[in-house]
Write a structure and sequence with these properties.
Strand content: 25-35%
Order of helices and strands: HEEHEEHEHEHHHEEEEEHHEEE
Bound molecules: zinc ion
CATH class of the domain at 41-246: Alpha Beta
Low-confidence stretches: 14-23
CATH architecture of the domain at 41-246: 4-Layer Sandwich
Shape: globular
CATH topology of the domain at 41-246: Metallo-beta-lactamase, Chain A
Mean pLDDT: 91
Largest sheet: 7 strands, mixed
């Protein structure tokens, strides 16, 4: 067999022609890989709490949904400069956390099940098993808000509630907003599927559901806080043990680099832009001032890091792995 090897001159000619051929060069290195061959979870401690970030997988969304109140060229340049744009899409990771503190084992959000991003997400239960958790172990499930990637996984393929023993906890305002009779007729066409999906996801867990308000203590050391905007009743979670603190941001900040550098930029999925920015600034200010660690649901896995304030903006510093 004869191998035809391109000469150095051929390669130079090809790269010169690349812009005309519409090739975008250079391509991003494919750091990552298929599910099942990658870490399913990331474990660390916070005071006396054992924390485990468990992935539900990921899903991609078009760049056009990001930073919709900013210059599109500026948004694109930011994402490209941070190696976060591929094929005009941005990746959304799904970082759940299980908090083991005292007698409580608290899971935050249940993912999308296999109901929406079936090829790439819906892996929470499988990855929990790999991390050593049985479904019956979970004492509380906190639902940050009623979007598909956070709550559509309340039931399994047989329509059974996936954490039958757990107390579900959710903001009462959030629950009432989505469950209001006739809501589906009041929202835009693009929102209707979200309302119907939320009702289907929340109705089965209603008997196990506690309605929370700002300051609700899920278990000792684990407190819910109001962070409205992304949805109107969105809530985050504050964890404190032996003087150490972590803020589960959920979707109050969805993009570690973009939302920190440009906290005033919002996405098409953020329901109330002004509230989104106010809640983002409040949580990031809290974290920066009190040196709280943060977890972002959609940040690059495992999504844990720290916040540094820089003028009117912030910088995300991913937590580095430590052996001790
Ligand atoms: Zn989300």
């Amino acid at each position: 067999m004869t191998l035809i090897r391109p000469s150095r001159r051929d390669i130079l000619k090809m790269s010169a022609a690349a812009p005309m051929l519409g090739l975008s060069a250079p391509a991003l290195a494919n750091i990552g890989g298929p599910a099942g061959e990658q870490p399913s979870h990331f474990r660390f401690t916070l005071g006396d709490a054992r924390l485990t970030v468990v992935s539900d997988g990921y899903f991609n969304t078009p760049i056009s949904t990001v930073g919709i109140n900013a210059d599109p060229a500026e948004v694109r340049a930011f994402m490209e400069d941070h190696f976060l744009l591929k094929d005009d899409a941005v990746m959304n990771q799904t970082n759940h956390i299980i908090i083991e503190l005292g007698d409580a084992k608290v899971l935050v959000d249940v993912g999308s099940g296999k109901r929406i991003y079936e090829d790439t997400a819906g892996n929470l239960l499988a990855n929990m098993e790999l991390a050593g958790f049985a479904q019956e172990d979970i004492t509380h499930v906190v639902l940050s808000h009623a979007h598909p990637d956070h709550v559509w996984g309340t039931r399994d393929d047989f329509d059974e509630v996936v954490f039958p023993e757990a107390e579900y906890v959710m903001g009462g305002f959030e629950f009432d907003w989505w469950m209001k009779p006739g809501r589906v007729d009041e929202v835009s066409e693009s929102m209707q599927q979200l309302v119907i999906g939320a009702v289907h996801a929340l109705e089965p867990v209603r008997p196990q559901l506690t309605m929370a308000a700002d300051g609700h203590e899920v278990a000792p050391g684990i407190t819910m806080i109001d962070t409205p905007g992304h949805t109107l009743g969105h809530m985050s979670l504050h964890i404190e043990s032996a003087g150490e603190q972590l803020l589960v941001l959920a979707d109050s900040s969805r993009r570690a680099y973009l939302n920190f550098a440009h906290p005033e930029w919002v996405g098409s999925i953020d329901m109330d832009a002004e509230q989104t920015v106010a809640s983002r600034r409040r949580t990031l200010d809290m974290a920066a001032t009190d040196k709280m660690a943060v977890l972002g649901y959609h940040f690059p896995f495992p999504g844990v890091g720290h916040v540094v304030k820089e003028g009117a903006a912030y910088r995300f510093i991913p937590a580095l792995w430590r052996w001790e």
